[in-house]
Design brief:
about 70% helix; mainly alpha
Length: about 110
């Protein structure tokens, strides 16, 4: 990534973590991911199509609030939508498993 261009997912992952450096940004993301998963479970449990419509808003809403008002940067979703989605679930999973801090250190996030 010498010229600032991201060439592969490994480079993107480190960039993604640096774009989520503030704990409050990550907290908003975790809230959004949890709400998305809840809405998806409700839909899959037969509670109506409305839950499927709510899911993306529930997921992206808190995350974008965090980027615009806490981190003050542009969501990575705008440039790399698929890698960003994968990374959001990866970050959430690492946080749930208690392994996120090591990845943040590796990315240079203090």
């Amino acid at each position: 990534m010498e010229d600032g261009r991201i060439r592969n997912y490994a480079e993107f992952w480190l960039f993604y973590l640096r774009e989520h450096a503030r704990p409050a940004t990550r907290a908003w993301h975790f809230l959004g991911t949890a709400l998305f998963l809840f809405a998806l479970v409700m839909f899959l449990a037969g509670q109506g199509w409305g839950w499927l419509l709510i899911a993306p808003v529930a997921g992206y809403g808190p995350a974008w609030i965090a980027h615009f008002f806490v981190e003050h940067n542009r969501p990575a979703t705008f440039r790399h939508p698929l890698w960003s989605l994968v990374s959001d679930f990866r970050m959430f999973g690492l946080w749930v498993c208690g392994r996120l801090e090591g990845e943040l250190r590796r990315a240079g996030v203090r």
